[in-house]
Amino acid sequence: MKSVAFTILLALTIPFGSIADKPRVSRDQVAKMELAIDTRLKSLTSTDDPVEVVGLTQGMYINGFGAVFASEVNLAPSAGISPFHPSITKEEAVRIHGKKLQRLPKLKDAMQEVLLSSAASLDPVPGDERIAVGVTLFYWQWEDKTGLPSQIVMYAPKSALVKAKTGADRAGLASSLTIQEF
Questions:
Q1: What are the residues whose beta carbons fall under 8 Å from the beta carbon of 97, sequence distance 6 or more?
Q2: So where are the chain's domains?
């Protein structure tokens, strides 16, 4: 009788969630989205005047929250200070700032498209969980950052993204999509 009671007591002390909380999204699915995001960000501009993706997009699935992806982008790569280019002229700084301001809306559109395409690619993410994309913008120390954020984060519930992607509620995406600029 004591062994039965001990077995029941032992079974009650094992956390139930630890057995059932296996990730819903595989690492392979996350890796495919990372590559898709890098490809989409690189295609923001022409090959003659590219955007630079700094490093590789990193993603993860957080059980109960959803999928999160982070990247870093230089919207207007330029020559840094070097022995062959010892200083940045005022004209260069103004041109680079203007180019970044011009490309910012394209980046936001690309981020939204990434969210929409991820809804289909990440089937195992439950509808009540979120998919988030964050992009940190790269700046040189000498750059004028006026009117430019340091980081943009967009996220929405997967169910809203699926509805918008299928055309069922494209207008409703605006009310479900959270955009934060820091």
A1: 143, 144, 146, 148
A2: 22-181
